[in-house]
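Students often ask why inverse folding is considered easier than folding. One informal answer: many sequences map to the same fold, so there is more than one right answer. In these notes we will look at a single instance of the problem. The structure comes first.
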């Protein structure tokens, strides 16, 4: 019997995305080694595909390379350039499937072979095929480029497998952007709703019966067996409960719904169980919520076009004064002082939460959000 790897609580990835970003940085003449070091990676890991890397390190490296280039859409650009056959076993088990629906179900089941930090669910609901991405054991907070790589890769797979220029009917992403440049819109093929409460790609349900051009049922049977064996070696636990709680809290903050009872329900446990599991990791719910707000506040304050009243609303504070009080407790300074001390960054794509985008004040935002 084959020896199986011990289940790890630290999600790892094959590292293909990080290596593609490394190549892009080298081609652009970046001093890449300090970026690798800051991410906890080595040059050997960046060059040798035999090494798996921590998903957290990959996310950090992508962010550092994107900032250094600069390339606000690094994940999209890397996904455009990659040869899908580099996905190896995963690609061929999809390409030999009978229909697109079969391929998407296999993508959902076997994607962890390449990346244990993203769990992909296949759902059929309301005449739609839904591919839902959920972070496991890593924080969603800092991940823009990796998740956009996943989405664009999924779109390219659907088109290449079927030989048709298929487009989804909707894409939702949790992170904020104002808009897509015109040259990128055709890649996605539909409107992308940034600032959403989940990461999701939706196709029309009838497309599941679309034939895959290179379908080979005999080969597929063999490859499924290999994928099952590879998956059994790569299974990880659900990850740190602190990260699970953070990922559940973040999209609920602007709605004022990020209380312990709601988060426990979304994670499928009781409040007591959630408190106990956090305590085993040395945390309380209030501490996790407070820390997440601080991390988000630091990011939002870098967006000079985002009013501080809207920052407060996005963090779930009913009054701007409450945000000021919390921020002074965190840093000893006010948000205004911290923002004014930083140089104004070049314009970036920013999207307020759809409700906050229209609102002149935090109080009015709360009132309108409550009526929805």
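Output (designed amino acids):
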């Amino acid at each position: 019997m084959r020896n199986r790897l011990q289940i790890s609580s630290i999600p790892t990835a094959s590292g293909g995305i990080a290596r593609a970003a490394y190549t892009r940085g080298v081609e652009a003449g970046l001093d890449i080694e300090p970026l690798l070091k800051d991410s906890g990676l080595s040059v050997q890991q960046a060059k040798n595909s035999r090494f798996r890397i921590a998903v957290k390190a990959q996310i950090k490296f992508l962010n550092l390379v994107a900032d250094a280039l600069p390339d606000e859409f690094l994940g999209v650009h890397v996904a455009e350039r990659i040869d899908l056959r580099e996905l190896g076993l995963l690609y061929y088990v999809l390409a030999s499937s009978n229909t697109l629906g079969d391929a998407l179900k296999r993508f959902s089941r076997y994607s962890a072979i390449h990346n244990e930090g993203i769990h992909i669910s296949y759902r059929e609901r309301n005449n739609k095929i839904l591919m839902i991405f959920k972070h496991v054991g890593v924080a969603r907070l800092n991940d823009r480029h990796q998740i956009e790589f996943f989405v664009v890769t999924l779109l390219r797979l659907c088109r290449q497998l079927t030989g048709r220029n298929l487009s989804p009917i909707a894409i939702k992403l949790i992170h904020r952007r104002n808009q897509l440049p015109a040259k990128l819109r055709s890649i996605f093929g539909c409107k992308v709703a940034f600032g959403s409460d989940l990461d999701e790609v939706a196709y029309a349900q009838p497309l599941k019966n679309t034939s895959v051009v290179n379908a080979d049922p005999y080969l597929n049977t063999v490859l499924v067996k290999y994928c099952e064996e590879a998956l059994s070696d790569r299974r990880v636990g659900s990850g740190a409960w602190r990260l699970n709680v953070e990922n559940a809290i973040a999209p609920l903050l602007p709605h004022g719904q990020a209380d312990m009872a709601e988060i426990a329900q979304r994670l499928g446990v009781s409040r007591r169980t959630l408190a106990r599991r956090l305590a085993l990791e040395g945390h309380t719910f209030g501490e996790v919520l407070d820390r997440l707000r601080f991390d988000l506040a630091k990011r939002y304050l870098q967006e000079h076009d985002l009013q501080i009243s809207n920052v407060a609303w996005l963090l779930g504070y009913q009054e701007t004064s409450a945000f000021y009080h919390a921020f002074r407790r965190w840093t000893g300074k006010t948000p205004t002082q911290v923002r004014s001390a930083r140089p104004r960054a070049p314009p970036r794509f920013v999207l307020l939460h759809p409700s906050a985008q229209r609102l002149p004040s935090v109080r009015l935002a709360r009132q309108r959000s409550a009526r929805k």
